[in-house]
């Protein structure tokens, strides 16, 4: 993957630094808009995943870059606190119920219904481009939590992640199934190919996963985020599969969505009860973090979907630049 085009002074300075040898002073982060901030933060996090072709791998743990990232994270965390009210505290034994109520109360835009019944092929392709930012590394951000858990919670997370990684069969990894969907839609399926085309709202979803996953202090938020992700997945994926079939998608193209209809129906029970419930019992003081992570996942997803839907209803692309249509 190559570095994308800069979106402001922070990314311009950051990318210029990253293409040189590691070292130097931290970047000064003053006024920064969402596009600049989230792209800069995403690139900093990506050094812990697959990295960039033109960036020396030693940058991953370069102290000056970590200090720059810490300031970007501080701003993102502050924005999340303003955006997402912290759910009321509950006893550990009530965490599963509270998660269920959070999900039930979410009233995000009917994006999945629109994709099932009305979306054009071009709009479905745009949707897949947005989702590629996460799905091409599906499960990786939440896997950071595995060594930070113990006992029943750890075993539950490993059980979920094993399915996400295909149970040891590379062709069944969910990231590989998503690649097949992209190819079926005539899209470039290479890792990070569309990073420069997605807006801040899309990047914020992935950035929250990485923020929670890469900080041990936020491990409760990380598993709560995963629980919300799994608990809101099965029905939308059924609709995505139906929408893609309506548009001519074959069994290979829809397999990613079909797989999630079944897998996530099981995962949501494991995530809510065995993962989050067990963690809250082991760490009662962090039960609130679990619910906060779930609330962040729901809120960022709702804001992203609202932005995409508003662009489509105005007859414009939801991506940066030209439409995706072949």
Number of domains: 2
Give the total of beta strands: 0
Order of helices and strands: HHHHHHHHHHHHHH
The structure class reads mainly alpha
In the CATH hierarchy, the third-tier topology of the largest domain is known as Heme Oxygenase, Chain A
Unreliable stretches covering 5 or more consecutive residues: none
The CATH architecture of the largest domain would be Up-down Bundle
Average of per-residue pLDDT values: 95
- Identify the CATH homologous superfamily of the largest domain: Heme oxygenase-like
What kind of oligomer do you see?
A: single chain
Q: In percent, how much strand structure appears in the residues?
A: under 5%
Note the gap between the termini: 22 Å
Number of helices: 14
Radius of gyration: 19 Å
Helix content: 55-70%
User: Major beta sheet, specifics?
Assistant: none
CATH class of the largest domain: Mainly Alpha
Gross geometry: globular
Give structural notes.
By secondary structure, the protein is mainly α. It has 2 domains: 9-82, no CATH class; 90-313, Heme oxygenase-like (Heme Oxygenase, Chain A), CATH 1.20.910.10. The chain is 63% helix and 0% strand. The chain contains 14 helices and no strands. It has helices at residues 9-18, 34-46, 63-83, 95-105, 111-117, 121-135, 140-143, 151-164, 174-184, 200-214, 219-231, 234-246, 251-282, 287-313. Helix 6 packs antiparallel against helix 9. The longest helix is centred in the last third of the chain and has 32 residues, at 251-282. It is globular. It starts with 8 loop residues before the first helix and ends in a 13-residue tail after the last helix. The model has no long low-confidence stretch (mean pLDDT 95).
């Amino acid at each position: 993957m190559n570095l994308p085009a800069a979106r402001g002074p922070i990314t311009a300075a950051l990318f210029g630094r990253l293409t040189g040898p590691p070292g130097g002073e931290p970047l000064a982060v003053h006024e920064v808009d969402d596009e600049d901030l989230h792209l800069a933060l995403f690139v900093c996090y990506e050094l812990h995943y697959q990295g960039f072709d033109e960036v020396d791998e030693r940058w991953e743990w370069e102290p000056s870059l970590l200090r720059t990232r810490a300031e970007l994270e501080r701003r993102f965390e502050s924005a999340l606190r303003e955006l997402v009210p912290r759910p009321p505290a509950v006893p550990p034994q009530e965490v599963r119920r509270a998660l269920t109520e959070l999900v039930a109360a979410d009233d995000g835009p009917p994006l999945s219904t629109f994709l099932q019944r009305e979306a054009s092929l071009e709009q479905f392709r745009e949707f897949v481009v947005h989702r590629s930012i996460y799905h091409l590394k599906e499960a990786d951000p939440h896997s950071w939590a595995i060594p930070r858990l113990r006992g029943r919670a750890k075993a539950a997370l490993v059980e979920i992640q094993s399915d996400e990684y295909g149970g040891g069969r590379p062709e069944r990894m969910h990231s590989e199934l998503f690649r097949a969907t992209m190819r079926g839609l005539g899209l470039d399926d290479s890792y990070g190919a569309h990073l420069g085309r997605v807006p801040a709202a899309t990047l914020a979803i992935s950035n929250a996963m990485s923020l929670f996953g890469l900080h041990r202090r936020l491990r409760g938020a990380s598993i709560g985020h995963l629980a919300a992700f799994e608990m809101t997945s099965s029905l939308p994926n059924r609709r995505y599969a139906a929408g893609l079939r309506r548009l001519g998608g074959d069994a290979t193209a829809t397999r990613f969505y079909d797989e999630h209809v079944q897998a996530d129906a099981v995962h949501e029970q494991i995530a809510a009860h065995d993962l989050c419930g067990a963690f809250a019992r082991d760490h009662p003081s962090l039960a609130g973090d679990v619910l906060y992570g779930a609330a962040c996942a729901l809120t960022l997803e709702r804001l992203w979907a609202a932005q995409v839907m508003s662009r489509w209803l105005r007859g414009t692309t939801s991506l940066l630049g030209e439409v995706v249509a072949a």
